[in-house]
Structures are given as structure tokens and as C-alpha cells.
Amino acid sequence: MTDIHWEDAFCGEGASCYRIGVDGDGNSYIAVAGQEDRPLTDSRAALQALILDIKAGRADHLLG
Hints:
five-stranded antiparallel sheet, 1 helix, DUF397 domain-containing protein
């Protein structure tokens, strides 16, 4: 498995905890905390776009 540097877990209300990580090749990862052996992976640019879209409220409809 690739050497991934994981950030501290981000936990929302309830039990939803996620971790974001990066590797030395510029790939980014997101995983449910405790399941880092099964991450989703994409480019750093794709993860940055996802985070910016979430911050801008473009995913709010998924919460309702």
C-alpha cells in the first residue's frame, strides 16, 4: 500500500468521522476513520475542488 500521511480525523455531529490524506505522488485520499485501508483516491486538485464545493454549499441538498 502507498505511504499515506493521514490528517487527524474530522468528526461531524453523530459518529461520522473521516480522514483526509496525501501521498508523496500528489494523490489525495479520504476514508472513514478506522477504515483507512479502504480509501477513495483521486488527485489533489479533485479533492481540493470537492472541499471548496462543500464549503460553498453545493452539497447541502445531500443533507436534507
